[in-house]
Amino acid sequence: MQENTANWYAIHIDRQDQEGRILDYCQALGKDLLKDAFFPRIRYYKRYQGAWHEEEKLLFPKYFFVVTDQIEQLYKLFQKAPKPIEILGTGDTPVELSNDEIHLLNKLMNHRHEIEMSTGRICDGHLEVSSGPLRGMEDMVRKIDRHKRMAIIRTQMLQREMEMQVGLEVTEKS
């Protein structure tokens, strides 16, 4: 997980299949300019062929995040990329993620930028998370799909209110 020593920015991409190309391009820029670049992911279970399988998908399709203290320089390089990369912002001014957004992502993600499965139970209609990144964040859960082993959390992210799917296995309901 990243310390808050540099600013975080969200980058919009046209298609999900650009992930490898973009990460390669970012790695070539070097650690002096770019402290980190990543696509946040969620880990979850999906049932097929009669069994549950651990899967992984992007938390925000079409977005990746960069951590830098030299956004102006990075912005110019992104504009010169073979296919220009768009940093979220207003006009030509990139907007950094708020401290609350960074704190939430750091709390949810592990060091590989993945949100792992949480485990919990429902007791008298209230969710109690016993392990995983949702522990202590039960109030953010808006909906639980026990059949898909997913929870929907609602939060402010990327300059708007949005819902995020995260893995949650409910082991007991009373």
TrEMBL record:
Pfam families: NusG. Residues 7-104 form the NusG-like N-terminal domain. One of its GO terms (biological process) is DNA-templated transcription elongation. InterPro entries: NGN-like_dom, NGN_dom_sf, Transcription_antiterm_LoaP. The keyword Transcription applies. Keywords: Transcription. NCBIfam families: antiterm_LoaP. This is Antiterminator LoaP. The gene is loaP.
